[in-house]
């Protein structure tokens, strides 16, 4: 077949060969990739080069891995920490499922790299038949697929302790993500080892450099706990616990131990370093909460939010709601700082211990400032406290479970900023 291309009727300019078209497509792809790379470091990502008319240039070939459009630049922040978090860009996402590469991270000793052929899970202590499983053993158990959120216990700390008007939803509440998980129910595995009746707790230990461990009630293991192998249809990524992790739906993220290597059954909590020095919660009066596992009902408006600037007219107020105690049953939105509330529409089915997307259509008349708030209820009847109520009960020094109502202020010029005291 000839590679020459004749002009179409009405076209001007010289004829273009197929070789020229392919060269042009390759150049455009290279420029697009360069633009995407530059976007990782530049304040404003470079606009990728594209052909003037994509219908006149062959597209790119298939590839081993697909990439996002070079016009889209979602990313977590901060990055490069061995110990610490990176935040999911909530304002850049739609629906409820968090892409695996944008799922928030929280590490205590960096991301462990583990050879799946050498991975083992030891189950011992107060059991009838101690057991060591390798990955192939684990895969032979019947598996289930469930959608659950994970939330860092400290999610919202910065917005509570050191709030700033120039905070995005990512910086306010970006330590929560929602994922489709596939794994083995822990209770199925425990039938093989025979947990003794007096064993009320087990210690879950990870195989990372921090050897993080947490004491967990056996009742949770027999309820909905999973030993997870896959996330969003693919094997776990290293940052999320590859090759296997514990998942405790609805509980503090630190209890869902990554790179799981040991389960030891005991008759009391282990009182390990990670549950005494870290995950106790200071309260007023010199007291502290410990083993406050369940994540409270919570919501956050993800749009409009900083740094958006609105014009007069209709706008969707959209966000996420979730609860560690079950399903979200209702979300309300206020556009007058809490004087009145309207019930929002739930755009996705409210699954237990999973994010639900809500939306409320709002017409802004151009007058401001206007305070936008959201509050959620769960199936236990619990709802979110105001910031003042939260502070009165928990104090300014509290460290975890920040579920108070938060909001955004629309200024007179349409600029949207975080409204910490709303």
What are the defining features of this structure?
422 residues, alpha+beta, Sulfite Oxidase, Chain A, domain 2, Immunoglobulin-like, 3 domains, five-stranded mixed sheet, five-stranded antiparallel sheet, 23 strands
CATH topology of the largest domain: Sulfite Oxidase, Chain A, domain 2
CATH class membership of the largest domain: Alpha Beta
Overall mean confidence score, pLDDT: 89
Q: Low-confidence parts lasting 5 or more residues at pLDDT below 50?
A: 1-42
CATH superfamily of the largest domain: Oxidoreductase, molybdopterin-binding domain
State the share of residues found in helices, binned by percent. Answer: 10-25%
Rounded to the nearest angstrom, the distance between the terminal CA atoms is: 69 Å
Structural class: alpha+beta
Give the strand line-up of the largest sheet: 4-3-12-7-8
Radius of gyration: 25 Å
The tally of helices reads: 7
How would you characterize the largest beta sheet? 5 strands, mixed
Order of helices and strands: HEEEEHEHHEHEEHEEEEEEEEEEEEEHEE
Q: Can you tell me the CATH architecture of the largest domain?
A: Alpha-Beta Complex
The tally of structural domains comes to 3
- Strand tally is 23
Identify the overall geometry.
globular
Strand content: 25-35%
């Amino acid at each position: 077949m000839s590679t020459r291309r004749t002009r179409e009727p009405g076209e001007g300019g010289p004829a273009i060969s197929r070789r020229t078209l392919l060269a042009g497509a390759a150049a455009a792809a290279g420029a697009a990739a360069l633009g995407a790379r530059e976007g990782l470091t530049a304040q404003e990502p470079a606009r990728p080069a594209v052909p003037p008319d994509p219908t006149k240039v062959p597209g790119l070939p298939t590839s081993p891995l697909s990439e996002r459009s070079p016009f889209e630049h979602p990313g977590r922040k901060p990055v490069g920490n061995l110990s610490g978090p990176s935040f999911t860009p909530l304002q850049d996402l739609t629906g409820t499922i968090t892409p695996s590469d944008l799922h928030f991270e929280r590490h205590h000793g960096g991301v462990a790299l583990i050879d799946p052929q050498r991975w083992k899970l030891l189950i011992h202590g107060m059991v009838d038949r101690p057991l060591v499983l390798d990955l192939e053993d684990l895969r032979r158990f019947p598996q289930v697929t469930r959608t659950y959120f994970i939330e860092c216990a400290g999610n919202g700390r910065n917005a509570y302790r050191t709030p700033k008007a120039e905070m995005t939803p990512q910086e306010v509440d970006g330590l929560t993500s929602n994922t489709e998980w596939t794994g083995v129910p822990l209770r199925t595995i425990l039938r093989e080892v025979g947990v003794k009746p007096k064993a009320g707790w087990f210690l879950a230990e990870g195989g990372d450099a921090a050897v993080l461990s947490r004491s967990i009630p056996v009742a949770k293991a027999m309820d909905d706990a999973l030993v997870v192998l896959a996330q969003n249809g693919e094997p776990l990524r290293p940052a999320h616990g590859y090759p296997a992790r514990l998942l405790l739906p609805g509980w503090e993220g630190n209890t869902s131990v990554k790179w799981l290597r040991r389960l030891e059954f005991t008759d009391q909590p282990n009182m390990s370093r990670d549950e005494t020095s870290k995950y106790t919660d200071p309260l007023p009066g010199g007291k502290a909460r410990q083993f406050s596992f369940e994540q409270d009902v919570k919501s956050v408006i993800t749009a409009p939010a900083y740094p958006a600037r609105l014009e007069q007219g209709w706008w969707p107020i959209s966000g996420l709601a979730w609860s560690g105690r079950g399903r979200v049953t209702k979300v309300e939105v206020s556009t007058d700082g809490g004087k009145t509330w309207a019930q929002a529409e739930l755009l996705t089915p409210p699954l237990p211990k999973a994010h639900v997307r809500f939306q409320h259509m709002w017409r802004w008349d151009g007058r401001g400032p206007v305070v936008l708030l959201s509050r959620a209820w769960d199936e236990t009847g619990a709802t979110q406290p105001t910031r003042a109520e939260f502070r009165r009960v928990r104090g300014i020094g509290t460290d975890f479970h920040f579920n108070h109502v938060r909001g955004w202020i629309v200024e007179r010029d349409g600029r949207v900023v975080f409204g910490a005291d709303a």
